[in-house]
Specification:
By secondary structure, the protein is α/β, with parallel strands linked by helices. It contains six helices and five strands; from the N terminus they run H-E-E-H-H-E-H-E-H-E-H. A five-stranded mixed β-sheet has the order 2-1-3-4-5. It is globular. The mean pLDDT is 95.
Amino acid sequence: MEMDDVYYMKQALIEAGKAGERGEIPIGAIIVSKGRIIARAHNLTETLTDVTAHAEMQAITAAANVLGGKYLNDCTLYVTIEPCVMCAGAIAWAQTGRLVFGAEDEKRGYQKYAPHALHPKTEVVKGILADECAAGIKAFFQSKR
């Protein structure tokens, strides 16, 4: 586990906290290019009344705007929970260089439904701060019951 991965995942967890404060499912994402955070995002599906407003989708759009292009080949996307199939597709289309996620999503994660959805050159690292990432989601859903 790289120390940078831990640092950036902690930044994604801060974003997840912002989502939770808004009543959103607490998932956060960060995109890093050349050692610099170029996008920060969290779930906004309730706020925007948009099922596609996942943290990853928001971050990819923001990063593309910063870079002035749609490809994220030299970027790393950090997200607190394993991306869904929709987000995995967007990560693939953006040709994201690296995907780092915290907790796996056994119910809705891309690995269950479309394990080959990512671009073949995308490096995947999983399990960074997995317990911390999962704890936020579990607490959120327990509070809803």
